[in-house]
Amino acid sequence: MDALRRLSVDQWIVYLLYGATVCIPLVPIGGNILVLVAGILALLFDRQRFSGALHWLQWAVLGFILWTGFSIVNSMNIQWSAMSWFYHIGMYGSIYWLMTYYIDNELRQKTFLSLFCMTGVLVCLGAGYQYFYMTPEHIHEWVDNVHFPGLMRRMYGTLQNPNLLGEYLLFVLSVGGLGTIQVLKAKDWKRFTCMALAVICMLLCLVLTYSRGMWLSLAIVVFVAGICVERRLLYALLVVPLVLFFYHGEVSSRLWSLFSGQDTSVMLRWALWDSTMYMIEDFPIFGIGWDAFWMTYPDYNYFIQDPTVIIYHAHNLYLQVAAETGPISLCLLLAILLGHSRNIQKQKHLAIPYRYSMTLITVVVLVSGLFDHALYSQQVSMVLWQLLGFSMSVIRNKKII
């Protein structure tokens, strides 16, 4: 207890952020509470830390926050959109700013990255338990038995959705995978063995999500990493044609279905995208309002006949953001993602793998966003904004990781 009393406000906030790193993917409400407490402590006792000039990317983040807030005026339910905006955008902005200004030295940055990757392993363990000990009433969740009769179950764990688990695992692999390459080059065999086992575990879990969009994202991430970091990674892409031509189980059938429009999820997406385009045409400035898609979509629906079915998002990041908060908001979000990626690449003092982690994460978001809108999940978005805040901390402080 004496040690706890001696901690400064600065240290308390850092430990709360460490706790949030672990809690967000595992117990999201716990992560939200920790970020909220950290934000309150910072505002009450350490406001001066946030003074000084802002990087242009921070201005872009502020612009995105404000523009999404302006979109509320077009919502069919202004009260709902306002509450949702505070709950989601408020938390994203908080964790971004806290990470930027408190994970501000080499030790804190290394500790965060270690906790981030270890949490990914814990998520895999929880997902494995869910997959193998799933109760009978939940065993067919997220499964299309008509078009994939051999697919009995999918892994989703604490992320509650296979696509969301896939997106989260790709974030962790973007950091941990490049870290593993760095350790291999350093010939630290003990650490390499542990990290390689963790990477293999995450890849196996990613396969068991049976998420085609995430598999495609992984292939493109490996390609980009092969071009930017380690050319020998490109040989890993040979696994894809081998699976397609020599293995005829559910993994290959899911991969082949990418080139077909016959299953329900593909047909639904085409219809959703068409309807969403009409929303953008009708609301080209501020959109239909933050988190108002599920309320507005019935007015544009022509595909789903069951009125009890609620469609929460457009299954496309670009169309979703443009429809809800306007094309300008989408441009700001893309500038934020690409800007953080490019600016951290310019930090020549960083070890090469860490210079490209944010690049790979950006690739994950942009590619998976073509087929789904994983950022609809607060868990996934919180992780992304935490990583963006970490990147800004590195950019501002120029510390060697």
Secondary-structure element sequence?
A: HHHHHHHHHHHHHHHHHH
Largest sheet: none
Q: List segments where confidence is low: pLDDT < 50 over at least 5 consecutive residues.
A: none
Rg from C-alpha positions? 21 Å
Q: Categorize the overall geometry.
A: globular
Strand content: under 5%
Total number of strands: 0
Number of domain units = 1
Structural class: mainly alpha
* Average pLDDT taken over every residue: 88
Q: How helical, in percent, are the residues?
A: 55-70%
From the N-terminal CA to the C-terminal CA, the straight-line distance is: 32 Å
Number of helices: 18
Task: Tell me what the structure shows.
This protein has 401 residues and is mostly helical. The chain has one domain. 67% of the residues lie in helices and 0% in strands. It has helices at residues 2-5, 9-26, 28-45, 56-70, 78-102, 106-132, 162-185, 189-208, 212-228, 239-246, 250-256, 264-282, 293-296, 317-325, 327-345, 352-355, 357-368, 378-397. The radius of gyration is 21 Å and the shape is globular. The protein starts with a helix and ends with a helix. 42% of the residues are buried. The model has no long low-confidence stretch (mean pLDDT 88).
In short:
By secondary structure, the protein is mainly α. Helix content is 67%, strand content 0%.
Please supply descriptive tags for the structure shown above.
401 residues; mainly alpha; 18 helices; globular
Give the helix/strand layout.
Layout: H1 2-5, H2 9-26, H3 28-45, H4 56-70, H5 78-102, H6 106-132, H7 162-185, H8 189-208, H9 212-228, H10 239-246, H11 250-256, H12 264-282, H13 293-296, H14 317-325, H15 327-345, H16 352-355, H17 357-368, H18 378-397
Helix pairs in contact: 2-3, 2-5, 2-6, 3-5, 4-5, 4-15, 5-18, 6-7, 6-8, 7-8, 7-9, 7-17, 9-17, 12-14, 14-15, 15-17, 15-18
